Amino acid sequence: MMNRLLNTFLLIAVLCSAAFAQVIEVRTAKVVTKGERMDENTIIYDEATGRRITIQEFGQINHDTPRDFRLDPEINEYGKPAYYVLKKNSEEERETGRINPYKDRKRPEIGQPLPPFVMEGADGKTYRLEDLKGSYVLLSFWVKLSKPFFQEDESTKDIMALLKKAQANRAKVVSLGITLDSQEESLAAMDEYSLGFIPVPNARGFTRKYNMPNPGSFLLIDPNGVLLEIIDRGSPLKLEKYFKK
User: Fold this and answer.
1) Which pLDDT does position 212 carry in this prediction?
2) pTM of this prediction?
């Protein structure tokens, strides 16, 4: 009789342990940026100690103190998380639960080479910054390429006008638009609008990589891969000075 009770107790303990692990896994997934999956191969560093921690350790931390910490992804050249950094939230963030994922991120510096990228355009082509040397590169940042988030407004008309100005002065410009849209949504937008850029779908990571959260913002990179200018929510026609002879 005692053996049966002991076996039953052990079985319950194992089931509870497995259920607890599943809860941790679910809670972990909730704090990661949408679309980014985590598993036992995910690399996480503790900012305070510099020590690498496992996904199980992070799950336990998140379970015990769900408002105290967050994970910030370090974005690689493909716009994907290379690894995560465990950071402590401020008192205000813990109280409100509101966390700005861009607050600790630095923007690229004007006059310095832009951190490299490899982008997959909706046109099926791969765009590597290294391969684009010899051409100007115009990066624009958008949320969605559909109403109510997007319409052919002054920004898109100004992009087209800027590209015509560059062409008239024999300047080569590759224009790419970062968007959260899917491949299908991006192709639909290309059919519906005169965009002035090739959409780069599912590209939330590049918005973080370059710290450009505001839609309708622009980066202009020169033919040597050096950042010329940042426009934060403004007309790209301000960039036409670079294409005047």
Assistant:
1) 95
2) 0.80
